[in-house]
Model the fold of this input.
Amino acid sequence: ETGVTQSPTHLIKTRGQQVTLRCSSQSGHNTVSWYQQALGQGPQFIFQYYREEENGRGNFPPRFSGLQFPNYSSELNVNALELDDSALYLCASSSGPTLGTEAFFGQGTRLTVV
Amino acid sequence: QQQVKQSPQSLIVQKGGISIINCAYENTAFDYFPWYQQFPGKGPALLIAIRPDVSEKKEGRFTISFNKSAKQFSLHIMDSQPGDSATYFCAASKGDYKLSFGAGTTVTVRA
Done:
């Protein structure tokens, strides 16, 4: 077990809706990143937070947003859902200022947009 | 564009055999190269990682070989076991930031 938990594990949403996915990191892990993994592909970097500030972003539109809280939890919010947003969403955490040598992933949230 | 290219897409190996997965990268600024193992319905788990100042790293049955001049690195799974059947991802990052993943290799170990 990595100590990183995500909720919910599965979710079905309708196109155009908004969704919030949650992640709880290990205590002491100040860095959290979110990744999108489409079926049969490798994870793609969405963004990264360090001590509640976004410090990096991948090629995802602004309708993907996030928050990190002082209690080592974080959220990924996606507005105006599109069918192509269907994927496994993963969060990863580490203790360093960046996603360090020990990046621990959660089990993911499987989002289906219909 | 994909910054890390991984091959093969899938492979089948007999129990006790050797599985070899190859990755190539373009960005010479990358300085951290981990391998992740992922089982169905689970998140990726760090298997082994290497920095470019060494050419090989071994942990148990898993070995990373790194060729800086060729910008390639590979994972060798020795004495493959049915429990090793999973999808393996290579990745790379610069300064421990933003992992760029390969497309993955599905390994099937036949008993």
Q: What stands out?
A: The radius of gyration of chain B is 13 Å.
